[in-house]
Each structure stands twice: as structure tokens, then as C-alpha cells.
Amino acid sequence: MPANSQMFRLCIICIAVFTLQACATSSALLVARDQFRHGSATDALQTLSEAKVSSRDQLLLYLDRGLIAQASGQYLESKIAFERALEIIDELDYVSVRDQAASIISSDWAARYSGESSEKLWVHTFQMLNYLFLNSPEGAAVEARRAAAFYEENKDVLKDDIFTRTLMALSFETAGQINSARVEYRKLEDDFDLEPPAFQGKNESEVIFIIASGFIEPKLAGDLFISFDARIAFPYYAPSSQLSPQTRVVIDGNAATYSLAETTMVSISQAALAARGKVLAARQALRVAAKYHIADSVGEKSDTARVLAQFLLVALEQADTRSWETLPAHLTLLRVPLTPGAHSISLDIESAGTNTGQLNQTRIVDVELAPGQRLFKLIRTDIAAQ
Amino acid sequence: MNTLSFPKSSSRTKHPAGVLFICAFLTVVMSGCAATTRTLNPETEQHYDASYDFSDKKQIVRTLTESLLSSSAVQTEAGKPVIIVYGVDNETSEHINTGGITDDIRLSLIKSGEYRFLNRQQRGNVQAETEFQQAGFVPPAQRVAQGRQLGADYILSGTLRSIEKKQSRQWRLNKKELIYYSMNLELTDLQSGEISWADNVEIAREASRPILGW
């Protein structure tokens, strides 16, 4: 009996430890995300720079830091943060025995977050933008090539990300790598019947607006009770409730023509999560079996211990709802051809705001374009104009 | 009569082996944790993974410089050809500063004494300095004469490309990656527009890493 009692205590302690260490996104991330959602990118960056984030959430820290820095116009800082995020993704690109064991005993929260395939692609998307904003088209082309390689590996899931695919082509075009640009435009034409744009002449100029609107829906937790002592919890994305932004462009007082490429982010995330469904289901089945066995062993000589263990293990089953929550709900790329010279561009954006419901904004952008110049401008509708 | 005794003499005899084992274990652990620094010979080939590194740069520079120096295609009537470097485009999947390649090739060619180079990067500064001298701040005798700069005979340019292939998803213990680099360099005659010389270097490398780990 003493041995049994000791075993029982040990189990309880183990379960308690796992319960304490898992099942929550690091609080600093939650605070920073809240600050960003309320329009304060500076405060959010300050919070993240001082944050002590669990090793399980390191990737999320750098994803959030990179995106918030970009939204506040700090492109170099954003580039550095995303470079670290890419390193972490590379470091986690293996099957970790430690993570697998921890997640089978407790929940998927115990494993280090390695990102959905959609999020891995978007790191390259935002890096392309950083290089373009930093006037380094060759760097953007490098990221475009990386994105293209990752896309080819996961194209079943990522095919509908028209924004990223157009940006890839545009990055190649801006870097003067016309053949690579043609390949990407042709793929878009094959998949969506989108006519490839005419390549910019030496005396033609262009302004490219990148409009990031709203916030992506977070992952939600779903539950499935098999019996009173066995529960399966799984993450899922609710369909997007935010409408695509409607944009009107007025140049020097006249309505302008433009081309548009848009992605509803959550639809890509849904596909990426669904593609992981089999792996998630297999791990869930293993976890249910493991927990059942643990509860059974603990309760061999004590029914009270069994019930307590069952209760704790069922309570411990939590869906891993971690995701890159600072992402916008929609990414829109607007190509506005212009003659060289000074122009005043008025952008009327009607989008679904985060906290305020419908959000109508007018942004006035004054530009002076040299012949052949292509200018990139980022507009995050939920953040004050930079 | 008091005698000195060791109540657990048998355990004493076990200590040396145990202590030795612990010491050996700690040594291994500590040596693994210690930060180390060592100087490498840059001429020795070193690769930690399949990506581009300084050994590749060395190989590219050496091969292309030797090729250009042994070529008789590049000639001028007035002695040593004057070259201006327009750089190497990076069309790889890595953020590689290709300026390092052209700088080293330029250095090797200058050292060979067979080519002369224009400093394109310093053109703005040269112009500013010349204008400063001509503005009256420098005595006339010390001013550099205008209109005496060299004109280039050739443009040196190139492209670094890469093709990467990753092993397809399947049940396996290692993930293999294949990278192929191709560096093309060419000299374009400014007078005729003809490519007077061109050569390339190819590097192919395979790397693998385990799929399973702690």
C-alpha cells in the first residue's frame, strides 16, 4: 500500500505539473496582441521586447514581433524578427521525441509551436514586403524563391493564396528577374484565369498598395465526449465573418483604374489545419489510450484515485488553439499605374473593423514618382497611418 | 585498546571506480557545454550544411579568375584592358552578398597585373572631391585635371543561381536536400556589345539531417 500511495502521489504531481505548464499562450503575447488590436503598435512592441515567453511559444513571439514592427513601419526590425522566426521553423522541422511524449501525456499545448503551413508561407510573404519597403528588390526575390519552393511542397493547401502568389511574381519582376516573374504569372493564369500584367515600361511608374485589414479569426476549441472519462478536444477555425474591404482609388481628383489581388487569410488557414487533420487525429487517439491506461494504473487499488485521475486527465485535454493572431483578416494588393511626376492619391477603404464593426477610412498619399519607379505602400487599416 | 576502524570498508573500495565514473561523465558533459573558438584555414574546405559558404566563394573566385587569366579572348590595342564591375545578380534562395565574389575576383585580377579596374562605387565621391577642388578651395597646381578619367573597355557581370530539391515526403529517418549552384561570369565589350569571355562554376551538394530528435 505505501508503494501504491507513493505512485498515486507521483501521478498527481506529474499531472499537476503538466497542467500548470501547458494550456495557455504566454501572457506577454496576449497583452501585446491586445495592445495591437487596440491600435497601439508601439506599446505592443515594447511589451514583446521585454517579454519572457515560454520556449513553447518562441515562434509566436517572433511572428507577432515581426508583423507588429512591419505594421508600425519598422521594416528592418521586422525583417530581423522574421529571420529569427524562419530559423525557429527550421530548427523545429523534425519530429521531437520530447514534444511528442509531452503532448501525448498532457495535450498538444505541451509541444513547441511550429506553425501551420499557411503561417510558414506568410513569413516569406511579409519578408518579401519588408525587402520591397526597404528598397531591396533582390532580397524580395530571394524570399519569393523561398516562398515558391515552399508553395510547391504545399500547393494543395496554399493554392488560393492569390495575394502571396501575385507578390512572388511582383518581387521577381521588381528585381528584374523577368523569366521567374513570367512563370509565376503563368501559374496564376492557369489556376485562376488571371491575365498576366504587361511588364512595366521604362517611362511608366506604378504605386503598389498593400492593404492589410481586420484581424484573422483565432483558432477555437472544439470538444467531443466519447464517454464520461474520455474527451477529445480539437482546434478549428470559424468561417470568416469579416467582409473583404471595398476600395476606391482617386488620383488627382479622378477615379483611377487598378488591378487587385486579394486573399482571405482564414480560408487558407482552415485548409492548412485540415491538412494536418490526420496527424492530429492519430495523436488524439494515442493520447486517449495513454490517459486511459494511466487512470487505470493509478486506480488499481483505489477507486477514488482512479476517479480523480480520470477527472484530471479529462480536464487536461485542451485543444491547442495557438496561432499567429496578429495576422490581418484580408491582404489586398492594389496595382495603380501612374505617369511619372507628383500625384495625390486618395484611397477610400471600407472594411470590417476589429472592435468597431464597419470601418470606413480615407487615406491620402502624396507621391512623386521617377520614370520607371515602382513604389510600395503599406496600409494596415486598424493601425494609425504611418 | 582503541583501534581505528572503518565500519564500511567494502563501500570504500567501491568509491574510486564510482568517483572515476562520475568524473568522466562530468568531463564529457562539461566539455560539451564549454564555449570554444578556433581559427580555421580559409583554404581548407569546410561545410556545415548544404548552403553557400566561404569555401564555395573561394572555389568560385579561384576557378573564374584562372579561367579569365588564361583566356586570350580579352585584348585591347592600348595595353591592359580597363574593366568596370556591374556586379553579380543573386538568383538563389539565399541572401548572399555577391559583392564578396566580385571584390575577390577584382583583387586577383589587379594582383595579376593584367587588368585595370574602374572604381564604380566611388564615382560619386570622386566627382564630389573633384568639384570641391575645382571650387577654389585647392591651389590650381594641386587640383586634379578634369576629363582625364579612364573609360572602361569591358563590363564584368554575372549571375549566381541555385536549384534546390528536397526529398519528397515519405517514411524515412533522414531528410535529404540537394543544392546545385551555378555561377556565370562574363565580360562584355563596351565597343561592340559582344560577350568577349564567359565561364561558369558549378557546385552540387547533398546534405541530410535526421527527422527524429530529442
**Largest sheet of chain B at a glance?**
5 strands, mixed
The percentage of residues in β strands of chain A lies in 15-25%
Nearest-integer average pLDDT of chain B? 86
Count the DSSP helices of chain A: 14
Cα(first) to Cα(last) distance of chain A is: 69 Å
Please state the overall shape of chain B, judged from the principal axes of the Cα atoms: elongated
Q: Can you tell me the CATH architecture of chain B?
A: 3-Layer(aba) Sandwich
Can you count the helices of chain B?
4
CATH topology category name of chain A:
Serine Threonine Protein Phosphatase 5, Tetratricopeptide repeat
CATH superfamily of chain A: Tetratricopeptide repeat domain
Q: Biggest interface pair, residues each? A: A-B, 17 and 16 residues
CATH topology of chain B: Rossmann fold
Provide an overview of this structure:
The complex is a heterodimer of chains A (about 375) and B (about 210). Chain A is α+β, with helices and mostly antiparallel strands and about 375 residues long. Chain A has helices at about 1-20, 25-35, 40-50, 60-70, 75-90, 95-105, 115-135, 135-155, 155-160, 160-175, 180-190, 265-275, 275-300, 305-315, and strands spanning about 95, 205-215, 220-225, 230-235, 245-250, 255, 260-265, 330-340, 340-350, 360-370, 375-380. Chain A is elongated. The termini of chain A are far apart. Chain B is α/β, with parallel strands linked by helices and about 210 residues long. Chain B has a single domain, classed as Rossmann fold (3-Layer(aba) Sandwich). In chain B, about 35% of the residues lie in helices and about 30% in strands. Chain B contains four helices and six strands, in the order ααβαβαββββ. Chain B has helices at about 10-35, 55-70, 100-110, 125-135; strands at about 80-90, 115-120, 155-165, 175-190, 195-210, 210-214. In chain B, α2 packs parallel to α3. In chain B, about 15% of the residues are buried. At the A-B interface, β1 and α8 of A face β1 and β6 of B.
